[in-house]
Amino acid sequence: MAENSTHDIRADEPADIGRRVLRLRTERGLTQKQLAEPAYTAAYISTLESGRVRPSETALRYLAGRLGTTVDELATGRPPHLATVLRMRLTDARRTLATGAAEDAAALFGALRDEAASFALVAEEFGALLGLGDCALETGDLTDARDLFAEAEALLAHEPLPRRVPALRGRATAHLLAGELRYACYLLETAVDELNAAGLHDPDALLLLYTASIAPYMDMGAHARAAHAAELALALAPQVDNPALVAGMHRGVARTLIAEGRIADADASLAKAQELYQQLHIRTELAHCHWMRGYVHAQDGNLKKAESELRTARDMLASKRATLFTVQVEVELADVLRRRGKAAEAEELLRPLLAPTALGAERGAVHAGGAHRLLGLIAEDRGDTEAAEEHYCAALSLLERTGAAGDLADLCRLLGDLLRRTGRTEAALDAYRTGLGHRAAPGTTTLGPAPAAPPPWPRP
Asked: Check: CATH 1.25.40.10 for 322-438?
């Protein structure tokens, strides 16, 4: 979505403006009379430089022309072309985030935020906050990410909602990664409804929101809603010029196609996304495509290809020091390794992931639950039912707070089967009942009505 960069001139105090006029006049070797004539008097310039009068906009224009500067610099102290320079630096910082380490990009975005804020360049400060939020997502600092995106939203509180959507989507993503699926859906659905109710049919904003809603819908078992969001996103794509948004849409749509068993279509959608990300040199998102293709191959039973794609994704993310995404890929890689008969290697990969600094209740709860589930399966395979039960119960406590219906139902089945085999029939029945309670019918959640589709856009 294009970030407009309109800057209202918020003039400083008269004393600040006066000192600025005095400095610039002195630097240019002008007397007060030479600066003033023919439109003003030397006495007016003297009064202005002493801070006893606030110049009108007409006077500011006149003085700026005489002093060879801009009205903006004279009124606010902003150097000429500062906004343009900061936007160029934002592009460089984005490139660093796309191809390098998040920590390096965060240092660039942080300096940009401070400079933009000091000169009240709101659009540039907003862009820097978005960048810092994305860096925090990559490093797994989800609380920081939420705070940064919320700060960006607040900065544009009086702007139209489409301008704030990238920050809102970032905040929803942080909640999703923390395992707060319902709240992520709530944020995204509320924004869609607000856009439609206000008649703000911005294709870029809506595409971003519909695409972002696919993952939490899928994790919650709301497959019909996910498919509908994908359908709406596909319909919007021809009206969007931003290739990164279109690539993200193709990646999101692939997940709904996998759920429908359309493996070839899912792979084709991922290939489109991958091609766009390669053209844009966005390494993190390209790694996500390899990650998703690994998942596609695993669903299709081609475990060798799945392992290869997941290892590629892990190596790419690790090279960028994208710690949270790296460990999430490792959980899925461990699942493939276990299915390929490499249980020891899978267990060796999983155990470090359960450290508080890797995964946990506040940092990737869904994947932390997945890691415990896999360790439970590995323990069962070697006959250690006590360890298996401990891992299943740990996974259950993590997943129950997320609302990940499909994962919860599968886990309760595994736990129930284990309890039944060890002679605890009543406990097994309780586990099965818990799983049935979490298994929502396709397309239903406890979220309330799905957001309405936007009305058709007029054709040009």
From this structure: yes
Nearest to 364 by CA among 184, 180, 201: 180
Burial class (CB in 10 A: 0-12, 13-18, 19+), 38: exposed
Q: Which long-range contacts (CB under 8 A, 24 or more apart) does 419-422 make?
A: 419/389, 421/385, 422/385
CB atoms under 10 Å from CB of 143, counted, come to: 12
State how far the Cα of 340 lies from the Cα of 303, in Å rounded to an integer.
7
- Mean per-residue pLDDT, 323-351: 91
75-89, 223-237, 250-264: lowest mean pLDDT where? 75-89
As a whole number, the mean pLDDT across the chain is 86
What are the b/e assignments for 275-302, b being 16+ CB within 10 Å? ebbeebebbbbbbbbbbbbbbbbbebee
Domain ranges of the chain: 14-76, 82-159, 322-438
pLDDT (mean) for 18-38: 92
Distance CA 119, CA 84 (A): 13
Tokens representing 87?
């936007």
Token pair belonging to 238:
């021809």
Contact in structure between 262 and 296 (CB atoms under 8 Å):
no
**Domains 82-159 and 322-438 are alike in CATH topology:** yes
- Which two three-digit tokens encode residue 209? 């929101």
* Amino acid making up residue 79: P
Please state which of the ranges 216-230, 272-286, 360-374 shows the lowest mean pLDDT. 360-374
Query: So what's the pLDDT on residue 300?
Result: 86
Q: Which CATH architecture has domain 82-159?
A: Alpha Horseshoe (1.25)
Q: For residue 353, what are its two tokens?
A: 């992931």
Tokens of 288: 């996500």
Looking up tokens 């001139």 gives 9
Which runs of consecutive H residues, i.e. helices, occur in 100-222?
Answer: 102-118, 122-139, 142-155, 161-177, 181-197, 203-219
pLDDT above 80: residue 453: no
Give this prediction's pTM: 0.78
Distances (CA, A) of 457 to 66, 193, 352: 50, 16, 51
Length of the chain: 460
User: From residue 433, how far is each of 222, 399, 408, 413 by CA, in Å?
Assistant: 20, 16, 11, 9
What is the CATH code for 14-76? 1.10.260.40
Q: How far is CA 455 from CA 201, 203, 340, 390, in A?
A: 8, 12, 49, 51
- Picking from 152, 101, 147, the residue whose alpha carbon sits closest to that of residue 126 is 152
pLDDT above 80 (res 233): yes
